[in-house]
Amino acid sequence: MKILTCPAQLQRLEGILRNSLPLALPVFGAVLNINRGNPGQSEVLVDKWPEFGAVLARPSGEVANGFVGHWGHWGALGLDLGMLGAGLGYWAQPAPGVRVGSLSPSHVDLLNDTWPYGGNARSRRFLAEILGRFPQVCLQDSSGQPVAWVLTDHFGTGTHSYTLPEHRRHGHMQVALTVAAQRAHARGFPTFG
């Protein structure tokens, strides 16, 4: 396996993967993140270059130092934000008294408690990591408390979206997904409707 470190090769890989969507979606988001500052400190490996048959994404140095990272082994799981129904042509407005904001590190326990895979120290570390490194959208009530949110991960996919039960059925998730999809699209990430 060859680790791609050359910016020109990574840009070329991005173009090749873009032309292979949706099949390439699991690794495409990781390559996009790498080419846009690499907030997750990831690396991409190919079986050979430039006529590769396999592409893997992983945390940088995972094999060399034995570290598996908070986000697991090679590969990707998840859905692109746009696949969740956020159309770029429609601008959903927050309900009265609700505004678009952002989550802070102080919200990590709330995220961990509401994530289906959460509730433990490992998931809390993972959520704190993606909260600090990757784009997210949060709708807040008039007091600044989160009511709905969308988090993205190392692969540019939606990893944790949630609306607090008492705030459901007001269109908050549609607004959060639309804003997240628009922001992802502005950064060059694909969205699917």
UniProtKB/TrEMBL annotation:
Transmembrane segments: none annotated. Keywords: Acyltransferase, Transferase. Its EC number is 2.3.1.-. Gene3D superfamilies: 3.40.630.30. One of its GO terms (molecular function) is glycine N-acyltransferase activity. Residues 137-192 form the Glycine N-acyltransferase C-terminal domain. It is an enzyme of class 2 (transferase). Belongs to the glycine N-acyltransferase family. This is Glycine N-acyltransferase-like protein.
